[in-house]
Task: structure prediction
Amino acid sequence: KAGVTQTPRYLIKTRGQQVTLSCSPISGHRSVSWYQQTPGQGLQFLFEYFSETQRNKGNFPGRFSGRQFSNSRSEMNVSTLELGDSALYLCASSLGDDVAWFFGPGTRLTVL
Amino acid sequence: GNSVTQMEGPVTLSEEAFLTINCTYTATGYPSLFWYVQYPGEGLQLLLKATKADDKGSNKGFEATYRKETTSFHLEKGSVQVSDSAVYFCALINQAGTALIFGKGTTLSVSS
Result:
């Protein structure tokens, strides 16, 4: 069974631009969550979706948004990029009725 | 609120040495606990988990026991290998099962 896939793997943007990251969960998994990883703040939860509904949201500004499609694939969008948004963005998926979350390889976003 | 504290790194060991990485948590109730590992340039891999008190999670020679008396979930391995060099994260899941709360991570470096 294929793991969680994320595209693109690397992105370079400039301040003020917006970006969309994509995540395809493990087949059969209905929950998707997103995390931001930075050297200073570590791993921080962004949001979680189950069956196209956002069930939980972390403490991030409204510039960070996400959605989930009917096939469980998910996207997250960051608008008006700031230098501090440079990070590894990780997507994870879960069956929805199990506590185990499985992570993708991440998208490395660099904001110049 | 929920939080995870793990020992600061880096931890530097010789091959075949015994490994312990300490992890303690603060949480409401008895959340499921996890250890994840991150190899350079990759996402997080679930190493092991424990879902209730006194459970022992194990995988690839690593073990951790859920101790509710000491609110701890220390990671151990009897004989480390160079290939175990990575960053290890202790985590708990919130009551709704929608978000992981991670420790800051501990870098392990094993030399031959």
